[in-house]
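Appendix B, Record 12. Input sequence as logged:
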Amino acid sequence: MIIVLLWFYKDSILGKIVEKFEFAQKYRSQISNFSEPARAIQYIVLSLSFARYVVFSSQFALCVFLFIPNISIEECLLCIGATYLFTTIIPTFALAEFGIRGPIAVAIFSLYNYDALSVFSATILVWVINLAIPAALGSVLMLSNKKKANSNYSPHEL
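Logged structural output:
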C-alpha cells in the first residue's frame, strides 16, 4: 500500500522513460497525457480500489470467523492481507481463483496453526458468494431471456 501511495504522488516514471526513445518524439503530447492522468481520476481510482479491498477483506474475515471463531482480528487481517498480496502476484482467472487462493490461504494461516480445512472452507465460501452464485443467477437469467426471445420468434415474419 505504501508503494502504491508513493507512486500515486510521484510524477510518472513510465512517461519519462518512453520519451527517451526516438519513435516516441512524434507522440510526445500523447505520452505526456498518458503519463500524467488528472488528479481527480487518480483519487477516484484509488478510492474505489481501497473500497474494493475493504469489501473483499471484510467478506473473507467474516467467513474466516465463521469457520475459526477463536482467531484474533489482528491475525485474521494480517493473514488475509498476505493472502491477497501473494494471490495478486500469481496470474489466474476467475474460475481457477479458489484453486490458487485456497492453498495460499492455507499456507499462510497454517503459520499460526489454524486448521487447513477451515481456512479452505472459508476461501471457497468467499468464492461461491462472489463468483459462483452471481454466475449461476446470470446464466439462469440469460437462458430465460433467450427462451422468451425464441418463443416470440415466428418463421413467417421473414
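Helices lie at 2-9, 13-19, 28-35, 39-67, 73-89, 97-110, 116-151.
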